[in-house]
Write a structure and sequence with these properties.
This protein has eleven helices and ten strands. The protein has helices at residues 2-12, 31-37, 41-44, 49-52, 67-74, 120-135, 145-162, 176-183, 185-202, 229-241, 270-297, and strands at residues 16-20, 26-29, 54-57, 78-87, 93-104, 110-119, 165-174, 208-213, 216-224, 255-263. α8 (176-183) packs across α9 (185-202).
Length: 307
Amino acid sequence: MDNQWADAILDFVGDAVLGTDTQATITYMNRAAEKLTGFSRKEAIGRPLDEIFRVIDVATRVTRANLAHHVMDSGLAVDLHNSSLLRTRDGSELAIEDAATPLYNANGEVIGALIKFHDSRYSAETTARMAYLAQHDSLTGLLNRYAFAERFEQAAALARRHGKKMVMLFIDLDNFKEVNDTLGHSVGDEILKALGQRLLGCVRATDHVCRHGGDEFVVLLSDLTEHEQAFAVVDKVREAAADLLRVGGYKPSVKLSVGISLFPNDGETLEALLPHADAAMYRVKTSRKQRRNKLRDAPIPNHGRTA
């Protein structure tokens, strides 16, 4: 029963596991090891480790020394390292991370070795993907708030050191709820993604674009000699978003309201500049609504027409 439980546990874990005796002959193989090496347990057990676990160094292409012999001779475990390629049964090469440890009996005598390994390609891809998701908005691919805050601190430090100026743009989509209600949220998402890409196309590599949340975006224009340089970017942003989407002949009335705050005039921290730009954006939006209401409520000229 104990061996059955051990086998079940080792088959359940994600890592591939091989066990050997003192002659580095394979005595155990779990399912993950079968999958990665291409050999079945029946084929592997009883054969020398080097015939099944064929490993070469990534840089030198030299076959690596037998890992089981190494840990048994030294009496020390070898931690995970990722400079190895496993030659599988069909001759292909697989990047792996592997580790090993000697096995001891109750008397403290070495009775074999245990080797574990896994496909490092997936761990590297997963790590990279997690790092990306931690810093980017999942819908638009733009920086999220946390990554934007880091970029701001870096840009602000450089601006202080070199006497440069920066401008923060707070951008909001007018009437975006109308788009979602009329065309659906999937279309609204497409607009947000398209706007994100257009914003990126309006700025330099040294600038930063963030989806702040919902239909709000923040742009940091850094390394400026004069604040007035930002006005050209604002014009480009408005032009790029002017004809954002046409669906079935219907053009949603989406416009941008843009608020601006200046570094260092309006503050030198994100906590100071962001609310300032947000308030400026809100004033723009409110002013636009008031103008629209005045036009809507203005009396229509009679032109001499009678009922």
